[in-house]
Design a protein that fits this description.
Distance between the termini: 86 Å
Largest sheet: 7 strands, mixed
Number of strands: 7
Order of helices and strands: HHEHEHEEEEE
Oligomer: single chain
Helix content: 25-40%
Amino acid sequence: MKLDSIESQKVLFKLPIIVVITCFIFNSLHETYLPEKLPPMINDFQKLNSLKPVGIIGSYWNSYVFAAIDPEHIKATPYDKDMFRNRELANEVLNQPKLLLVQNEWLIDFPDSIPQFGKMLVRKGNPFLLGTYITWQEINDVMACEYYKVL
């Protein structure tokens, strides 16, 4: 009985060492196991500061990321064919003094006009680079274009 106890203690002592070595080996084989910390996206979209207050229509994920930068002055929603959560928020977006469509993941180009949430939006000006962000090993340019709604 005492022998079993001594053997168990040896195994319990070695177990954390084995786990640490295994994690180290796994991490060296797979870079994404312990990913590096990415910088906040607010640093990549400084141009939004000069556009506030603004409404943004984009893809599901990115629209909410933009709104999180400054929810008081940036209202954002996914486009109307995507999974948008709140119709009232879509109305708030459309009622902002400036309205941007963000190209990522849903627009191939910026059309002269596009229907969104039952309103016709007309392009105002040329597309511009809103910002660039890095996700893991990929650089992403985010293009935007200003639109206005036709009453």
